[in-house]
Every structure is written in C-alpha cells, then in structure tokens.
What we know:
The chain is an alpha+beta fold and 155 residues long. It has four helices and seven strands, in the order αββαββαβαββ. It has a seven-stranded mixed beta sheet, covered by helices on one side. The longest helix has 13 residues, at 12-24. It is globular, with a radius of gyration of 16 Å. The protein starts with 11 loop residues before the first helix and ends in an 11-residue tail after the last strand. Residues 100, 102, 108-109, 112, 126 line the site of zinc ion.
Amino acid sequence: MELFHQKNSISKRTETILKKLSERGHSKIVNGVSVRILSALKKGEVKVKDLGRLQAATKHEYTLLRGIGKYGERVLIRGTPNQVGLPAEYLEKKYVWSGHSHPDDTSPSQADRDALSAFDQECSVIVSVYESSDDPKYKTRTFEQIEDWSDWLPS
Ligand SMILES: [Zn+2]
C-alpha cells in the first residue's frame, strides 16, 4: 500500500494570498491568456519572494506589479503554467513590473525583455523554483531589457 503525503506543504502566508486571490480577485483574458488579478494590495501584502512560493503551490506563473510610489497599490496576477499576461492598463498607468515567477529556470524570454521595454523599465526580477523532495529551493535573478553579452565578448 502506498502512502500519500502532502508534498511542499503550503505556508500560512502563501495560503492567505491564494485565498485573497480566489475571493477578491477577478478573472480576465489578456492577449489570449487566462489570468486572475488581485488588485489593491498594500505594500508587503505580497512580495516578489512570495511569487516562487505561489508558483510552487499551484504550478502557475505569477507576476507582481506596483503602482506609482513606494506605497502604490500592489497587483498580483496569476497566469497559466507557463505564461502570464500583463494587462495594458497597467502600462498606461505607469506601473512598475516588480517581478514574475518561472516554473524551473530564471532565464528571461524575449517576451520578458520586450515587456520590460514596454514598461520602460531598466530591470525586473524572475523568481524560480527548484523542487527537491519536500523542500523547494528558490532562486531569483534580475534581468534587463538588453541581453548582457559582456561575458563572452573579447576584451
Ligand atoms: Zn518570464
């Protein structure tokens, strides 16, 4: 007989965020991607480092935006297992793209760099999850609009 036990038990904090997303969030289709949006979050209610835990808990990508100013509204968006749409209204309102999660690596895609450029932003953060038994590991990486070739250019 096989015993099933819950892998990666979800923290109270992650659980609370997911509950808010389901109760207060709203669903929307953005560029063909089905997303769920939770807006009007206060500073600290959801942080970039939560994105990895949310990703680990639900296997969906998450993104976090911030309204203008240090205490600007935080907006959490849940995407699909491998992509997340950024609603244009946040671009127009000059929100900051704080970060997003990836399922298994921290390499930015061309779409990520294009989005960063659309936000007219120098850099943003990718949080990724490395699953290892019951103890997932998280990695973060800052990426920029232009790929950094300096590692291989002849000096
Ligand atoms: Zn990405």
